[in-house]
Structure formats: C-alpha cells, structure tokens
Write a structure and sequence with these properties.
This protein is an alpha/beta fold and 287 residues long. 25% of the residues lie in helices and 20% in strands. The strands form three sheets. Strands 1, 4, 10, 11 and 12 form a five-stranded mixed sheet that branches. Strands 3-2-7-8-9 form a five-stranded mixed sheet, with no helix packed on it. A hairpin with a 6-residue loop joins β7 and β8. The longest helix is centred in the N-terminal third of the chain and has 21 residues. The model has no long low-confidence stretch (mean pLDDT 93).
Length: 287
Amino acid sequence: MQSITIDTITEAVINHGDRGKSHPRLYDIYTSLVRHLHDFVREVNLTESELQQGRNFLNQASHHTQEIPTGEIHLLTDLLGISELVELLHDKHRGTESNLEGPLYVPNAPERQMGDRLGIDAEGDSLFLSGRVLDLNGQPIANALIDVWQPNSKGLYDIQDPSQLPGNFRGRFKTNKSGKYMFETVVPLGYKVPSSGPSGELLRLLGRHPWRAAHIHFKLSVPEYTSLTTQIFIAGDPHLDSDTTFAVQSAIVQLQKHEAPDELKAHNQSKPFYTTEFDFVLKPATL
C-alpha cells in the first residue's frame, strides 16, 4: 500500500491517472499547477483556517452580481495580472498590441453605420473617433468588423447601470473600402472595478486601489486575418501608470478639443467636443 507523506503527496497527485495519455496538454498544465500549488502551501505553511478562507473566497467570486453578471472569476484573473501576462506571452508584437477583453463584454452588440453615435449620454463630452484598419504593409482592409464597447461619462457600462438602455455604448461597425471607420461617442471616464464583492475586499485588504484608466474596448475580425482584442487609453488619465489590471501598454491617444463656433456648427454640437484618431494593424492569420 502506498504511504502518503508530506514528501510523497505531490508526486502521488501528479501520477494519479493515465499520466497524460488521454490529454497531454491538460496533463502538462495540471502537473505544473499541482507542483506550484503544493510548493505554495509548503512555503507559506498554509493553515486549515486559511484554506477555508480561500475556498469561501472562490465560492463567492463565482456568484453572479448586478455589477458583474458573469461572476468575478474573470475580474480576479485581471486583478492578479494573469490575464495581461497571457496577452504578453502570446502577442508577437506585430500589428496592434492585443489586450484584455475584460469581464463586461457582451456579444451581439447593435449593428451601427459609419458615423453613428455609439450611445446616449447627455452629460458627456462628445468624442469623434476615427481611423483605419490596415495590414502589415499599410494597405487598407475593407469590411473589417469592429466591435466596440465602453463606459459612459460616469464610468458605468450599460449592464451595470439601470438608467442606460441595453446596448448603450456598444456597437458593431464595418470599415469602408478605404479601411476607414468613424463613430461618435463620449469621452469615457476612468472607473473603479466592481468592488462590492470578494475581489474588492481583497484589494482593500492589500491596500490596492480599484481604478482603471479611461479606455475604450475593441474587437476586430476579418477573414484571413488574426482577430484582435485590444483597448485604447486616454492620455492624461491619472491612473495610466497604475491601472489595477496592469493593462496599459502603448495604445494611448491624445484628445483634441474643439470649441470654435464654426467647428461646433459643422459637427452639430452645442458645447466643446473632442476628436482623436487611431489606426489598427492586423496580422495575417498565417503568422
């Protein structure tokens, strides 16, 4: 009979089964995870009480809430830097940088036309965002599908805010034959990640702030090119250097303010507004 001791339990767990014959990649991940977890338990001399606290935390993180209807597990991997690390490991640095999807993406956003407004927010400062989708040689990519979502000027997404209609500040656009896209939105506000649940409590216990730098999310897809999920950030945001999901890379845009009467009239605006441009570069699917 096998004798399980503090020195043999790790290998016993790893070798319990067919040792990767059925699913080699899963077994590689499982083996490394078990070794690291067991080393962690030994290193911190984890107690039964602390283990139970960890179980309770994960149970609570899996529950759905108004702030995050899908549960907090996705948010937790973002806050631990795991999500961004995976992006950095697999981004080959050709084309526009990939970045986090985040826990607040909703599929099947409303289809919108070139120049449409992304959402309704009477108090927000209008932002006209445009650019092109290009290949690695700088040639335009027509009919690229651009899926956009962002918070409003108060830092709230539609699924978090009952005052917003479903689909507010979400939309899907297609580029024209010149690879161009253009839409009207509002300048997004940096916001605190949902903090009423266990992830927020963890941040408080660690003395970490919950702020995300102001950003807009994008998903781009087109046949024969690698799909891209990314974010662009707003220059001047106070949390660019300390975003709580560690997601700020180099996709940072400067906003240009417009307040001259002729500019207001040309853009049908009654108060100052902003413009900015950002070009996306997609990699061929073969790379």
